[in-house]
Amino acid sequence: MNTIQKVEVFSISLPVTQTFRFSSGTAGSAGGTASIALVKLTDSGGNVGWGEGRPMPQWSYETIESVTSTIRTYLGPAILGLDITDRWGLHQRMQSVIGRGPSTGMPVARAALDMAVHDLCARNAGIPLRNYLGGGSQRNTVELSYTLTSHDVESVKKEIIAAKEKGFRHFNFKAAVTSETDQALARAIRQTAGPDAFVWADANQGLQPHEALTLARSFADAGVNVLEQPFPADQLQLMRRLRQQCPVPLAIDEASVSAADFFQYAAEGLVDYLVIKVTRSGGIWPSLQQIAVAASAGLPLLVSGLTDSLLTKMAVCQLAVVFGHHGPAALNGSQFLDESALYPNKAEIEFDGAVHLGMQPGIGVQPRQEALESA
Questions:
Q1: What residue stretches are annotated with the Mandelate racemase/muconate lactonizing enzyme C-terminal domain (predicted)?
Q2: CA–CA separation, 54 vs 305, rounded Å?
């Protein structure tokens, strides 16, 4: 029996190559840096697994300082000596030192350790993570959704044309700018992207109740496929009111950190999709529970991220294909971050608007140790 013997956490700053704005703030400005926590687990046999946490204070309360200190001081020591395959026990131990409030406590920090444990288990088994989770090798490609950043019609059309030349077929955009802007962008995106594109509007909690229904109707007329998180995460009653007359499919993001959160929305019939976001949900193990809820409710999947690096992107894609989901996946870290120092071979994995999973054991990629040591 292999047990967890060592937990290391590294804080690294990656260059931001493009400004990414949304209704509640920004995920980084061009020329700045983005902070990422990387976790390295070593077991009693000397084997290693890697995980990532991408704290985003604008989307949740966690920061790079709180994630790294929580792992080093609380979560890491709590899981030492644990059988690496005991993923239920992993979350029980983490729960014993960082409890839950209204929802999961410190989900980004938990996700980094959970991901590393899954990577370690699959590596020890000598198989890709998707096989370890019960999937088949032949399901190995996930199409990406390109995140549009422009807020004027002509610029967004140029973005789409350029993205299509790179192989992208699906597009997501940040709504809740102004009602007029949102409506114009939705029409332009559908027109330029074509009838087969999946068009995904994400309001990031930014809509006002008096405008939401009118905007949703215009989105439906424009051919938007889904509207994500129109209201603040704690305003369930607003979702109930919108749902009564809403003509466009709905999804939630910030409002669903645990399987219990998603169950409430699914049980009331308020959502049409589960958005899988492993970092937000505390890891792969809790995400499996969310997927079980969605399957029981007959709801399909979408995939999203927190502008994470390639490690999380690969882990999430490995999870998605287990359940036959091949996209769209709004895993857009590569659009906004320069990951070349950590993952110099990324172009062999991500190309033609998709992630291509190989047969390497585990998640399928790991950060360059030299880059971490020099950070």
A1: 153-249
A2: 9
Domain C-terminal end among 126, 154, 169: 126
Distance, in Å, from the CA atom of 88 to the CA atom of 97, rounded to the nearest integer, reads: 15
Does residue 343 share a domain with residue 248?
A: yes
Which helix (H) or strand (E) element contains residue 69? helix 64-70
Which among 49, 71, 59 is positioned nearest to 284, based on CA atoms?
A: 49
Q: Which candidate, 6, 21, 369, places its Cα nearest to that of 181?
A: 21
pTM above 0.90, yes or no: yes
Write out the DSSP string of 243-282.
Answer: HTT--S-EE-STT-SSHHHHHHHHHTT--S-EEE-TTTTT
Q: CATH code at 209?
A: 3.20.20.120
d(CA 113, CA 211): 41
For the chain, the farthest-separated pair of C-alpha atoms sits apart, in whole angstroms, at: 60
- Is residue 94 exposed (0-12), middle (13-18) or buried (19+ Cβ within 10 Å)? buried
Same domain, 238 and 252: yes
CATH code of 49's domain: 3.30.390.10
Q: Which residues contact 367 (CB under 8 A, 6 or more apart)?
A: 38, 50, 309, 311, 342, 343
Query: 205 with 229: CB under 8 angstroms?
Result: yes
- Walk along the chain (375 residues) in steps of 10 and give the mean pLDDT of each run: 96 83 60 90 98 85 94 98 98 94 89 98 98 96 95 95 97 91 96 97 93 95 97 94 95 92 95 95 97 96 93 97 95 88 93 96 93 73
Residue type, 203: A
- Please report which helix (H) or strand (E) contains residue 295, including its range: helix 284-297
Domain residues for the domain of 168 are 132-373
CA distance 310 to 241: 38
Q: Position 187: which residue type?
A: R
Cα torsion for 36, 143, 248, 27, to the nearest 10°? 20
Q: Which of 80, 99, 126 is the last residue of a domain?
A: 126
